[in-house]
Amino acid sequence: SILSFDETRESKILSLRPDEIEIGGAKAMDSFEKEFFPVRNYIKQNVKSPDQRYTAYGNASKSGYRLFVEDLKTGKKKMVPDSADGFAPVWSWDGEYLLFTVKNGAERDIKIYSRVTNRTITLFTGKNIEPLTCFSPDSSKIVFIYAKRPWIMNKEGSNISLLNRNVRVSNLGLVAWSRSGDSIMLRSTKKGSRYYVFSLKRKELKILK
Q1: Distance from C-alpha of 169 to C-alpha of 146, rounded to nearest angstrom
Q2: Is the pLDDT assigned to residue 9 strictly greater than 60?
Q3: Residue 117 and residue 152: Cα distance in Å, rounded?
Q4: Does 191 or 201 have the greater pLDDT score?
Q5: What CA–CA distance (Å, rounded) separates 205 from 170?
Q6: In sequence order, what are the residues at sequence separation of 6 or more whose Cβ sits closer than 8 angstroms to the Cβ of residue 75?
Q7: Residue 102 in contact with residue 84, Cβ under 8 Å?
Q8: Could you say which of 20, 63, 143, 171 has the lowest number of CB atoms within 10 Å?
Q9: Which pLDDT tens digit goes with each residue over 15-40?
Q10: Which pLDDT band holds residue 45 (cuts at 50, 70, 90)?
Q11: Three-state secondary structure along the chain?
Q12: CA pair distance 93, 188, nearest whole angstrom
């Protein structure tokens, strides 16, 4: 894993359940430090795993467009199951999983591929899902944009929760999770768009009176 043991232990946000996390404050920036926001999430069809051992890429053939994973040391290639028309692949920080989305008529599927088991699972399906997704630094959670709002879920597709109903996102061109785990960064594809960093915090419990 990219995170050291100490960094993982000290990240309080990453230890919470998705439904316990919400967006706190926000700030806009014209640039960012890539050391703190490792960016592998531009919409690319050829992406290397964080450990540089594997690459995921799309390939068109007579049978259609599919995603493949190649072992860069051995040159061995595997077709990603259930990846027809797969788009915007992104690796988990530990290099074990690959997220991608598939347009399915008016809807879009969010899928996850396990490099170890060679299986693909559909995590979520809905209308108005942005193609880009993002793993948390410990590879346990996923952030995605649905109906122009940021959502979070476990990598198994469980505990799907809205991060903040007041934050609206469209034409997503970048999403990244900070190395410390306590903030996410979003940017639109629109010309002149700034980078918006949203801090993550424990959701405040509302006491009914």
Answers
A1: 9
A2: no
A3: 24
A4: 201
A5: 29
A6: none
A7: yes
A8: 63
A9: 999 999 999 999 999 988 887 777 76
A10: confident
A11: CCCCHHHHHHCCHHHCCHHHEEEEEEEEECCCCCCCCCCCCCCCCEEECCCCCEEEEEEEECCEEEEEEEECCCCCEEECCCCCCEEEEEECCCCCEEEEEEEECCEEEEEEEECCCCEEEEEEEEECEEEEEEECCCCCEEEEEECCEEEEEECCCCCCEECCCCCCCCCEEEEEECCCCCEEEEEECCCCCCEEEEEEEECCCCCCC
A12: 23
> Whose structure tokens read 């948390």?
136
Tokens 């439904």 sit at which residue?
Answer: 19
User: How large a percentage of the chain has pLDDT more than 70?
Assistant: 90
| Cα 97 from Cα 114, distance rounded (Å) | 5
> In whole angstroms, how far apart are CA 145 and each of 47, 125, 155, 175?
21, 12, 15, 10
Q: What letter represents residue 79's amino acid? A: M
pTM beyond 0.70: yes
Measured in whole angstroms, how far is the alpha carbon of residue 173 from the centre of its chain?
12
Q: Using CA atoms, how far apart are residues 152 and 201, in angstroms rounded to an integer? A: 13
pLDDT score of 39: 72
- Laid out side by side, the sheet with 21-29 consists of 21-29, 195-202, 183-188, 172-177
User: Hey, what are 202's tokens?
Assistant: 């424990």
